[in-house]
Amino acid sequence: MVTQTTAPATTPPAVGAAPARTNYRTDIDGIRGTAAIMVMGFHAKVPGFEGSYVGLDLFFVVSGFVITGLLFNELGKRGRISWPAFYARRARRLIPAKATMLVGILILSYFTMLPTGGQQATAKSAAAASMFVSNFYFWKDSTTDYFGHEPGTGVLLHTWSLSVEEQFYLAVPLVILVALLLSRLTKIAVRGTLLFFTVALLIASLVAAIALAADNHDFAYYLPMTRAFEFLLGVALALVAPKVKLSRWFAQVLGIAGGLVLLAVLIRPMPVDVYPSYWALLPCLGTAAMVWAGCDRPTAITRFLSFRLFTWLGLISYGWYLWHWPLLVMGESVNLAPPPLWVRIMLVMVALLIAWLSYTYIEGIFYSRSKGGATRKAPRRPRTVLLAGVSTMVLVASLAGGALLIAKHQAQSPKWQEVSQQLTDIPQLPYECIWDTHGTLPTAPRACNLTPFEKGRPTVVLWGDSHAWMLIPALVRAGAGADVNLVSFTMGGCVPHLEELAPAAGGSGYTTCQRSNDRALRFVTDEVAAGRPIRVILGASWDDYGDGPSVSLMDRRDNDPVHIAMLDRSTALLDQVPPLFERLASLGVGTDVVAPTAEMPRSAPLCEARTLPLSCDATRAETDAAQAHSRAWLTSLLPELPPGARFVDLDDALCNDVVCPAKTDDIVNFFDDDHISAARSVTLADYFRPSIDAAVASAQLAAAG
Fold this sequence. Notes:
Blueprint: H1 26-43, H2 55-78, H3 83-112, H4 118-130, H5 134-140, H6 159-186, H7 190-213, H8 217-222, H9 224-240, H10 248-267, H11 281-293, H12 300-305, H13 308-315, H14 317-335, H15 341-362, E1 369-370, E2 373-374, H16 382-411, H17 414-423, H18 431-434, E3 448-449, E4 459-464, H19 466-469, H20 472-479, E5 485-490, H21 512-529, E6 534-539, H22 561-573, H23 577-587, E7 590-594, H24 604-609, E8 618-619, H25 620-637, E9 646-648, H26 651-654, E10 659-660, E11 663-664, E12 667-668, H27 678-682, H28 689-704
Parallel strand pairs: 4-5, 4-6, 6-7, 7-9
Antiparallel strand pairs: 1-2, 3-5, 8-10, 11-12
Helix pairs in contact: 1-2, 1-13, 1-14, 2-9, 2-11, 3-4, 3-14, 3-16, 4-5, 4-16, 5-6, 6-7, 6-9, 7-9, 9-11, 10-11, 14-15
């Protein structure tokens, strides 16, 4: 998120003063305002705003353009740049509102979030945000993983973009000083030298973003090295625009073209799993085109962007951005799930009110405003302002440390210790299966030997997504004492289906789910070819991949592009499930299919621990309605399997005729909202003993034959 900056002054300001805005461009604030609307709509998951996450790109380009214009104007008028005054202006603009938000969120987190996760995560990220390094913090943070269903752990996630911008401000002097040095050495004008240097850095940053976006997405998304090209595009435009005058008709066409490019990426969202990469060039170039179109004279696009509502929102966009995301996440924390659309919109509007109050009564303490800008002289000299700013952020970091200690102390209470154990009550896998995944669900295709593997005995294979993985404790208990190998091929979001790759492909160009399914099928095929008895248990969150209603409120993530894309990919693969059944039948492999299992509306451990009037249980009627289609579909496929196939229905143990409870006999049945806890899974061993017995009987029959 980019903060509001000012246009060049016509007369040299006093030391430390904010420049007057005689050249103020309303369309620049209009771009900020429209970008703010885009970001708010995307974060609130408002229908039609699926592609508006590009709003941040608009802010980055505008920031590079405006800051460079200010500095070059000062350089031209004074022959030098007063860096203390520059940073003092940045401190007055950034720190008061940000410090107020951080302190306010630390206080609110105590009342709205949980000490086991939300409060602690907020305190840590608040310290990082106060030191302007939250982008690095969230890049390295691993607490939000595949099962990061606890709301509230990312309440300050949005500050990553503020840190990127603040790091850009820190890098500006170095870039300009290098350009000045090169200018003296080469005898080339400073503007030309800086432009060359800027373009070189822009290309390097873009190449890095493209190279890292696919395989190291978090690095490319959060870090300044791979985001710099967006700011640098604005810098380059600020250097070129004063020297290249556009004709009236070309400026009109350029501005409209830029607006149409942005409209196109909003209507047809770009892929978010490899962003920014080269995709970010589209909104960035569109923004640059609109800015350049208005450099010399008003155009159609500048008149549109100068609409009073847009410019007003642009002026308070900094505060709006600061507050909207924490309120949305806290709404999730209170509800233990994404709140309804109308609540999300209301929270965004509350953030807008707070932004207006901040702009008027907090930011206004440090400068007064005429039409669109800061005009009053700074009340303190730059050195004093910078010292006060640093002291303020150190104080905020100290308060964050205190909040962390309070949260940790509260989390050590017997109640929250028990809740923490329930939240981590997951299958315990051998180290070699999860050594690179923080001890949870495997994220790399591999065969996980749940027991020591011996070729001379039968094998039972558990194959599927996380809803198969959660059954590992039951399978291990069922196989205890039996002379049988237990092997699992499980990966999150990987529905079992027919996926054969060419031996020479090596997985290149294929997803990890495709490789996992291929390895599972090859393993089964090899065992059959070797004449060793084998039985397969297929499990998946079958109902999540269909079109039926979901009991889990976490699955109702309105317009979440990542979640939608994942489900779309998995739904498309369901067509390959019947061929898998046919292949297993052709191999003569005994197969059992686990039926869809019940799920909760909210995280079971957290809901049971809260005293809010929330529904923790799911009714049997809504559970049956959610599963009806997938159960009928799977039942129709069972005849494709070899004789003896079973349909394993665990809901008989998880539910009664009326309700599927979150907790039964002092055991919390789920460690989140839809994955069975290890403590409950162990009690389901009897459902899988027939699978073990069938594999052993098959081996005995083969030996007798």
